[in-house]
């Protein structure tokens, strides 16, 4: 799901990068050492390799968030004082910081922050307006890691440090010796909403920020708030509230009716220069925010909170061990793994309390030892992020799936793209089934399987009543899909945020039907399985046999004209027909035959790259480079994957080729850099690419290790000469998830393209 995108990748562009690299190395000007892959030192601490700056410039939409993996609330410097759609809290190129936010931003997305709160320390006259209170800062003063952030605010000559837990945060502020010391608190509520209260005797400020829906049901209440409890060690010399730009001393409450509202406290003159602030958050109540804070930060020990978060991240990031590569590649890799470990987020409290889905109006409790998750960017993350979790964190992935099942049970229908605990009908497809069955097929069972299937089946066969459908429940345009075997152009799909896109919907529903068919078959529902499998061939109904591209089609069977597969069209999603022609992951062999056989298929793939139509910055392209493997041209998979890794990603703030989309872009990098990718989630197969590193070890939660050894890997040796699985010659260009689970060793002999193994069979 995209807001803006980097220019699509092309072979011409990659050659230009290589030419520039040659010129730079020739004249002896370079930004880092050219370390051979195999000779590079093995990183001793993956945590130290993470650089949260990556993706914070241009279109990446990431942010330097501090906390723990998949935490409820992340703590970040704020350079944009808004919860507006598609605006991240922090942009690297902004010159001023307006505060420090307890954020629920869906990292790398074009959605909204929600239920957040901002704290801003200042010195001198009281200024509450974000533009007026903002301070200049220098990037040189910033210290960033997944567990800690620090910066010097130049305009106030003070230093701010952040650390956090799953549901709470802690700030350490070092003020200058002189001047009035203020702390400004703002619930980032929409105009006319929100609440804040100062409690001087308790040295605390509490409040909430109501959550509002966007997409389907835009403007309506999401049925819950972002609650916060802020505690200070020191007593207040003065405290009050503010409404708009007007501050009022000694008032304790400020509620609805303000364009912006908040509270402020001024510390006593004899207060220490360095103070601590603890913040608890919850989506259910102020009492739960207090309990979350007490449970996760019972004391005033900043370094202990930071240390525990660092230990948590080290343990998580160390589940993948890499050797080789350049320092920049290792930084890019572990930062990608960090970005792929932020969402979906935990939204239940420490005692398991969470709000019922879709404004249900009830409070529920997650099972003991489990958490309830939200913010599923499923059109993006079914492709790589959730498959990555099935490898690295299967127990957590199962909890996420149980959360989806709970949403379906509480809301009535399985959600398509659930965020801010609401139906949205954002994006297309029905890919919850892909996430559910991909986990089931890989042996993950810590969710209610019968209820999951009931909900999957319901989505596949039943359209909700009209009043529920317009709220975002059910597949969009399912009636047309069932009637015609495709969605005709006459159906403009009005009750969706993305209207039309009929061809893309048809293709993605056909894939979803395939996965649902497998789920049905696994559970013994043979009639459902047969019908859904038949429907999974509906992709053929939008593949024009004359042009051999997918193409818009009317209800009478005629094709839209004029037609240019290289141009964007309203009947495809964020892409063009050339790109979407390749979205038949469930039947690549059938697609190869339908377009004229292997040579024609390879030619069509070549044309996509040669015409600069491949777009790594958006999800419809993500599996395309791996499709050469299916047509007997694995060298081209290895060529393009390695070039994409090298040219589309980097270790700077602009190091992402598009929105990170809740970690999907980063998950693509993590998997591809290790040398494989799941072309069809819902099956056990991974397609082999070209790993960046000489050795990769995945430490599995079952105690075993899956190892990939890429012998003689280097910038010049990017092609696979031979494959061995556990020492035995291996002829396939894919391997199974079962190989990972049993702790196999995949050995790839790397070299140049001159190899009989690279010839088409």
From TrEMBL:
Domain annotation Glycosyl hydrolase family 92 N-terminal: ranges: 49-282
GO molecular function list: hydrolase activity
InterPro entries given in the database record: 6-hairpin_glycosidase_sf, GH-type_carb-bd, GH92_a_mannosidase_put, GH92_N, Glyco_hydro_92, PNGase
A Pfam family this chain is assigned to: Glyco_hydro_92N
Source domain of life: Bacteria
Signal peptide coordinates: none
Domain (Glycosyl hydrolase family): residue spans on this chain: 289-751
Keywords of this entry: Hydrolase
Protein's UniProt name: GH92 family glycosyl hydrolase
């Amino acid at each position: 799901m995209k807001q803006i995108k980097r220019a699509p990748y092309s072979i011409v562009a990659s050659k230009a990068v290589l030419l520039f690299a040659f010129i730079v190395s020739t004249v002896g000007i370079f930004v880092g050492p050219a370390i051979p892959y195999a000779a590079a030192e093995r990183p001793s601490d993956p945590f130290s390799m993470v650089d949260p700056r990556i993706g914070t410039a241009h279109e990446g939409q990431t942010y330097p968030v501090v906390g723990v993996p998949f935490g409820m609330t992340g703590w970040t410097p704020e350079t944009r004082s808004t919860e507006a759609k598609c605006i991240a809290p922090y942009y690297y190129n902004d010159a001023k910081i307006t505060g420090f936010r307890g954020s629920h931003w869906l990292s790398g997305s074009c959605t909204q922050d929600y239920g957040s709160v901002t704290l801003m320390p200042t010195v001198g006259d009281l200024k509450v307006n974000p533009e007026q209170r903002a301070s200049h800062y220098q990037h040189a003063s910033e210290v960033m890691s997944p567990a800690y952030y620090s910066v010097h605010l130049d305009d106030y000559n003070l230093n701010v440090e952040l650390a956090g837990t799953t549901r709470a945060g802690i700030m350490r502020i070092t003020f200058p010796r002189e001047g009035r010391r203020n702390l400004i608190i703002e619930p980032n509520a929409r105009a006319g909403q929100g609440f804040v209260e100062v409690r001087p005797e308790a040295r605390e400020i509490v409040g909430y920020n109501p959550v509002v829906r966007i997409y389907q049901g835009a403007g309506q209440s999401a049925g819950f708030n972002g609650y916060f409890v802020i505690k200070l060690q020191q007593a207040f010399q003065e405290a009050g509230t503010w409404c708009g730009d007007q501050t009022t001393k000694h008032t304790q409450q400020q509620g609805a009716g303000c364009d912006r509202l908040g509270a402020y406290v001024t510390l006593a003159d004899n207060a220490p220069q360095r103070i601590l602030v603890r913040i608890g958050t919850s989506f259910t109540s102020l009492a739960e925010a207090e309990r979350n804070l007490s449970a996760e930060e019972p004391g005033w020990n900043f370094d202990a909170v930071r240390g525990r978060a660092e230990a948590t991240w080290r343990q998580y990031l160390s589940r993948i061990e890499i050797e080789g590569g350049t320092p920049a590649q290792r930084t890019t890799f572990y930062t990608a793994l960090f970005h792929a470990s932020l969402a979906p987020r935990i939204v239940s409290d420490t005692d398991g309390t969470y709000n019922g889905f879709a404004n249900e109006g009830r409070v529920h409790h997650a099972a003991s030892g489990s958490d309830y998750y939200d913010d599923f960017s499923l059109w993006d993350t079914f492709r790589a992020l959730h498959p990555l979790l099935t490898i690295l964190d299967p127990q957590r992935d199962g909890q996420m799936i149980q959360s989806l099942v709970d949403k379906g049970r509480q809301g009535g229908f399985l959600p398509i793209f659930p965020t801010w605990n609401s139906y949205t009908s954002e994006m297309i497809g029905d890919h919850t089934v892909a996430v559910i069955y991909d986990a089931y097929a890989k042996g993950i069972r810590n969710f209610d399987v019968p209820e999951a299937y009931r909900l999957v089946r319901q989505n596949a066969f039943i359209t909700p009543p009209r009043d529920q459908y317009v709220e975002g429940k059910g597949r969009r345009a399912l009636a047309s899909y069932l009637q015609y075997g495709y969605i005709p152009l006459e159906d403009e799909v009005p009750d969706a945020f993305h209207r039309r896109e009929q061809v893309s919907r048809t293709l993605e529903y056909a894939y979803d039907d395939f996965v649902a068919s497998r789920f049905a078959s696994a559970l013994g529902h043979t009639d459902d399985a047969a019908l859904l499998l038949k429907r999974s061939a509906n992709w053929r109904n939008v593949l024009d046999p004359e042009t051999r591209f997918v193409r818009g089609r009317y209800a009478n069977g005629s094709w839209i004209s004029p037609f240019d597969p290289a141009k964007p069209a309203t009947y495809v999603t964020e892409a063009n027909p050339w790109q979407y022609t390749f979205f038949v992951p469930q039947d690549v062999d059938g697609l190869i035959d339908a377009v004229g056989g292997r040579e024609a298929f390879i030619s069509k793939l070549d044309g996509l790259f040669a015409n600069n139509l491949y777009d790594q910055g958006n999800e419809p392209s993500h599996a395309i480079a791996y499709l050469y493997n299916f047509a007997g041209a694995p060298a081209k998979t290895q060529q393009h994957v390695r070039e994409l890794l090298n040219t589309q990603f980097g270790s700077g703030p602009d190091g992402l080729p598009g929105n990170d989309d809740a970690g999907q872009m980063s998950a693509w990098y993590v998997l591809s850099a290790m040398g494989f990718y799941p072309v069809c989630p819902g099956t056990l197969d991974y397609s082999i690419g070209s790993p960046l590193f000489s050795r990769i070890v995945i430490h599995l939660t079952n105690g075993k290790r899956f190892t990939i050894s890429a012998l003689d890997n280097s910038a010049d040796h990017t092609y696979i000469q031979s494959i061995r699985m556990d020492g035995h010659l291996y002829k396939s260009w894919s391997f199974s998830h079962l190989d990972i689970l049993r702790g196999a060793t995949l050995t790839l002999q790397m070299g140049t393209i001159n190899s009989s193994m690279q010839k088409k069979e």
